[in-house]
Design a protein that fits this description.
By secondary structure, the chain is of the alpha/beta class. Helix content is 38%, strand content 11%. Strand 1 (6-9), helix 1 and strand 2 form a beta-alpha-beta unit. Bound molecules: zinc ion. Zinc ion (ZN) is lined by residues 166-168, 253, 255, 296-297.
């Protein structure tokens, strides 16, 4: 028997990871997800333990993934009293960025500890900064919280299955553990020929001990639920069952949502919920319910907040409101204040996506290529 419920890692100071007023990435959307979750499962509810005091990760923890010289570089940008750039273009440094980014890492580290101790899911909606590399910032990510958590689990001798449904390829994580036989990495993303960071193709399957353990599923712009769900059921359960991880980490970016402002996939809330339920079940089956779920990308606050709040409810084993259910008035007011736009009225997305650029032939072609690269069969589940 595993205990129900989950642990929620959210410190208000995560909002200090703030890349500027005009930057597309904002922890406000994650804050709104937590607020919405709180409206349904009020603080004090027994089966959700809240962890709201997270201190920035120590230097030695960060060094489980990041190079010392890079940490010094971010530290000096953090001490400088003007904004700077940490990479070639889109990841600014700013006063205080080091402790802000290190606190997000500590959230993932806490989430990992909690799920390993408690045998139930842990949720870190502020995390999922999967593009940062050992020696550089990239794609809005200063430190890579999920990679540090994986690095710690691996150092402790554990096997980690990393699943990534963000619209962008999780390059920092995949290349960071490309040689590792202890990290299975399965990444669904928009095709790198059409979206940052331009990586994550089927022939990239790992190297050395990691050979055959990196699985890339690029999807064309316009692909939606059918692509994600059918491929997920075809590839993920069988790989998890044969790999037998000690812990599963899910990077739950919401930028694959239909209407996102940076990516062109078309997942709906229903698909996210189906993935969440499947991952909870698989974690129970293969990993003693050791499951850490982080946030990730997502650039429309109304989508990020609702999807991640719903993810929290699923992880906690709480009923999920129907799509037609109205959102609480207090939350809608807060949304408008924070975002400066009218709040959505209901839980559901409301309008149908345009027809999906994906059919059974696309799926078979991709699966065939994966089978060839990985030397493994993925029979159709339909
Ligand atoms: Zn993304």
């Amino acid at each position: 028997m595993t205990p129900g419920g989950m642990s929620l890692v959210w410190d208000e100071r995560f909002r200090e990871y703030n890349l500027g007023p005009d930057h597309p990435f904002t922890e406000q959307s994650r804050a709104l997800a937590v607020r919405l979750f709180d409206q349904i499962v009020p603080p004090g509810t027994a089966n959700v333990r809240r962890h709201a005091e997270i201190e920035p990760a120590s230097r030695s923890l960060l060094e489980l993934f990041h190079r010392r010289e890079y940490l010094h570089f971010v530290e000096s940008a953090s001490a400088f009293d003007e904004p700077t750039l940490l990479d070639a273009g889109d990841t600014p440094g700013y006063p205080g960025c080091y402790p802000a980014a290190a606190r997000i890492v500590a959230g993932a580290d806490r989430g990992l500890s909690l799920t390993l101790e408690e045998g139930r899911p842990a949720f870190h909606p502020a995390g999922g900064l999967h593009h940062a590399h050992p020696d550089r910032a990239s794609g809005f990510c200063i430190f890579n919280d999920v990679a540090v958590a994986i690095g710690r689990a691996v150092r402790e001798g554990r096997r980690v299955a990393y699943l990534d449904i963000d619209a962008h390829h999780g390059d920092g994580v995949m290349y960071g553990f490309y040689d590792s036989g202890r990290v299975l990495d399965i990444d669904f993303h928009q095709d790198g020929r059409t979206l940052f960071p331009g990586t994550g193709f089927p022939p990239e399957t790992g190297r050395g001990d990691g050979a055959g353990l990196k699985v890339n599923l690029p999807l064309p712009p316009g692909a939606g639920d059918r692509a994600l769900l059918s491929l997920f059921h075809r590839v993920v359960p069988s790989m998890l069952r044969s790999f037998r991880p000690d812990v599963i980490i899910l990077q739950h970016g919401v930028d694959g949502h239909v209407g996102d402002s940076l990516a062109q996939l078309q997942y709906t809330p229903g698909a996210y919920a189906a993935v969440d339920r499947a991952v909870v079940e698989l974690a129970r089956e293969v990993a003693h319910s050791h499951l850490l779920v982080t946030g990730g990308g997502g650039y429309r606050p109304e989508n990020v907040s609702r999807v991640l709040a719903r993810t929290g409810l699923i992880l906690a084993g709480e009923p999920v409101p129907a799509e037609t259910t109205e959102l609480p008035a207090a939350w809608r007011e807060e949304f408008t204040q924070l975002v400066g736009e009218p709040a959505p009225a209901r839980w559901g997305y409301g309008s149908a996506p345009v027809p999906s650029a994906w059919g059974p032939d696309h799926e078979d072609a991709l699966v065939e290529q994966l089978e060839e690269e990985l030397g493994q069969r993925f029979p159709s589940t339909g």
